[in-house]
Amino acid sequence: MIKIVSGFSIPIGPTIALVNLCNQLNGKEHHCILYGPDNWHMDKCKSAKINEFHPESGDIIIVHNIALFSVTELYHLQNKIEELRKKHISNIFKCIFSKHMHWLRKHDDIKIVLSCQENDLFPIRRLNYTMFDKIHYVHSWQVNYHKLKHDHFVCPNFCNPLRASEHKPGKVAGIIGSIRQENQTDLSIEKALWDGMETVILYGYLKDPVYYYKKIVPLVKKYPGKIKYAGFIDDKQTVYDSISDVYCTVCKPWSFVKKECLMTSTRYHGPDISAMPEESLTNHQIVNIWEKELNL
Amino acid sequence: MKSFEGDFYKLLALLRGHKPFAFNRFSDGELYILQNKELILDADQVKVGENITEGIYKTEDFKRFHPEEHSFYRDRLVDAFKFTKRNYFNGLSCRCCVGDENFQWQLDFHGEYDENFTWANLLVNGNYPKFIHEMYPVFYEYPTVFVCNEKADLSVLPFLVKDFRVGYNAMVQDYGLIEVIRSWISENNVEGHLFLFSASSFSKIAIHQLYDYCDRNTYIDVGTTLNPFMDMRIDRTYLKSFWLGERGKDINKICIW
Q1: Less Cβ crowding at N or C end of chain A, within 10 Å?
Q2: CB of A161 less than 8 A from some CB of B
Q3: Segment B104-149, tens digit of pLDDT
């Protein structure tokens, strides 16, 4: 059984990627289940809550965004995630001491893969990454960023099909991605309005409400009637059909936003990232990579 | 087993499935009116029955209910409270917020236990983050109508097709608006719409009468939950914790039945 476990299952990019991975693997008759602590993933793929996760002999476990320091912790994952969410200080010490403790890596009958969907939001270097059999990166840019000498493979996330919209609105900007300081949503809004956009719609999970209230609400008052908040919308086609332009400030080479803009004839305004070969892979090729890397 | 989180997801499933329902909420203010106690909420005083304390309210929250003068409106509130219909969810003030005695009073006053009883606080306290993250985005799937205070700025909400405004003490001052909304529904053959209400006690009476009239729309009393998007005050503890990061117990509070 392939078991994907994630430190969160809220509707943001990595969760969507893991849902797609789970569905694609099940589509190829590999039994896969996604476990998460939140609820959003529950009706999106074969899934369960994190408290139902139990490692079993022969399992392949894909771990995402859980700062594990030993295999033993996999057996108490719900507690571990709750502890991490409280940002308990003991975790900092565990991270410092555990990364050199190779004896903690004892899991002969299960394979553990770390799926890395982030950069600075989940710095692998601070973890006991040696406990993982392999590290999965979604873009080769991450390999250079994390600079780890450990067995790894690069495989992009699956991309959902989108079509060019027939009736695009004029001068409606979309800002796609979770609302948080790290994504600099406020800068993207200002950029769009300076460019003469008449409306800016925020499509994303409200990861940091305090940031929204501090940085976005003043902009709502500064530009009356121009900024709207939609939240995370499942149906990406609906999102792209409602906007003419996309604005983005932070460089995330693995993000699909630029590619999706191309598919939907939406103008993209954001960091110009040079294309890497893996970006042109089809979903069929991507699932083949997973099969090879997991020895399925 | 009834649970605060479970009931939230029950309503969310209906909303996602585009199955019409009504969620009405009878909080402490409505409880006092149902109990036929004089109620004054204003800047100078808060009067509940014989109890008078210092006033803390701003204009848009002013409320005045006098049992004799306003008996007609109290009767309509009673109608809303006692109404039962498929998918009409009646949110009661819970025992952890108003005490055992008041909670039991509501059940006795209603007369029979309704399986659609739920929490008046279902969208707030410990469920508020779920409301913002999981329920709010579903509003985008609906042509949505908002019934709210005249001071609210609705420009941030991208899903609105229409709004109706009320002033202060709307239950009394704006009662006629219910007929205006009903006519609008009728004349425009409005079905499959979502109606959100943030209009204090007026909401309760309107939701009952409109759902009774047309149960092919969904009606939700959102209370103060969307205030941060409407340039309205966020003085409730759960709002301050969520939006300002202030310490407070309400944002983690799981109300009990």
Answers
A1: N
A2: no
A3: 999 999 998 888 999 999 999 999 999 999 999 999 999 999 999 9
> Distance between terminal CA atoms of chain A?
10
Quote the pLDDT of residue A195. 97
Q: Minimal Cα–Cα distance from B13 to chain A, Å?
A: 11
d(CA B126, CA B253): 5
Q: Which two tokens stand for residue B109?
A: 């006053």
**pLDDT of the residue at A99:** 52
Q: What's phi and psi for A99, nearest 5 deg?
A: -70, -15
The β-bridge partners of A4 are A34, A62
- Is A290 at the interface with chain B, CB within 8 A? no
Q: Which residues of A touch B157 (CB under 8 A)?
A: 228-229
A209, B132: Cβ pair inside 8 Å? yes
For A175-213, the pLDDT digits (tens) are 999 999 999 999 999 999 999 999 999 999 999 999 999
Mutation target among B155, B227, B247 for the A interface, most CBs of A within 10 A: B155
Gap between the Cα atoms of B16 and B226, Å rounded:
19
Banded model confidence at residue B63, pLDDT cuts 50, 70, 90: confident
